[in-house]
Amino acid sequence: QQQVKQSPQSLIVQKGGISIINCAYENTAFDYFPWYQQFPGKGPALLIAIRPDVSEKKEGRFTISFNKSAKQFSLHIMDSQPGDSATYFCAASIRVSGGSNYKLTFGKGTLLTVNP
Amino acid sequence: DVKVTQSSRYLVKRTGEKVFLECVQDMDHENMFWYRQDPGLGLRLIYFSYDVKMKEKGDIPEGYSVSREKKERFSLILESASTNQTSMYLCASTLGGNLRVGTWNSPLHFGNGTRLTVT
After folding, report:
1. Which H/E stretch holds residue B8?
2. CA pair distance B66, B70, nearest whole angstrom
């Protein structure tokens, strides 16, 4: 059961364009929404994250837009560069039942290619 | 910098073999996780641990077990490897306590993965 649905599976953008990746969730117990970036041969690394009480978070060229009522959030990459070519994963954090610890559930990933 | 080291980059095993994947972190993190990554399926949580000798099942624990005898080391065990366990395996660690996993206070630090092929 995929608890965080991510689209598209792959995306090709021209240099300077805007890349948009969308995610949706059903479980309202999710309470934090990070995005991870993975380059070939490497493990994923935290890119940007947002709390559910904020509608937008911007860090440089990367912006998360969050719509709590629709249970959707998206990553926008402005002025996309060839160096942004990577796999992007949205994720959602949830408390492990019965405890005070958390775990992350990931989307299926989006392979972004930025052409020069 | 946090370093999460997975003992093998590539591994080839035969069906039915017992397979051990090792992961070591050097930041005294309490939480450790094993994920598998498959094309089109993303990252799926197999098992995780919040303390030494503690373990919790993730979303796809069938066919796997784990061991955490020391804080810095978290092992994934395939009791009898099967071809459908051919995958990229990623270990991750993070600070413990009640910090939300994945936040800037407690980001997941991943290793570079072990690509396991079961023939």
Report:
1. none
2. 12
Mean pLDDT by 10 residues, chain B (119 residues): 88 97 93 94 93 90 96 96 97 77 76 96
d(Cα A11, Cα A19) in Å, to the nearest integer?
A: 8
Three-state DSSP state, A91 = strand
Interface test with B, best of A42, A73, A106, A110 (most B CBs within 10 A): A106
- The CA distance from A17 to the nearest CA of chain B, in Å, is 25
Cα–Cα distance measured from residue A115 to residue A85, given in angstroms and rounded to the nearest whole number: 9
Closest Cα partner for A105 from A19, A8, A23? Answer: A23
By CB neighbour count within 10 A (0-12 exposed, 13-18 middle, 19+ buried), where does A71 fall?
A: middle
**Smallest Cβ distance to B103: which of A32, A89, A107?**
A32
Task: In whole angstroms, give the CA distance from residue A64 to residue A73.
Answer: 7
Most A CBs within 10 Å, among B101, B104, B114, to test the A interface? B101
d(CA A29, CA A72) in angstroms, rounded, equals 14
Helix-, strand-, coil-residue percentages of chain B, each rounded to 5: 5, 50, 45
Residue B18: is it exposed, middle or buried by C-beta count within 10 angstroms (0-12/13-18/19+)?
Answer: exposed
pLDDT band at A31 (very low <50, low <70, confident <90, very high): confident
Exposed, middle or buried by CB within 10 Å (0-12, 13-18, 19+), for B38? middle
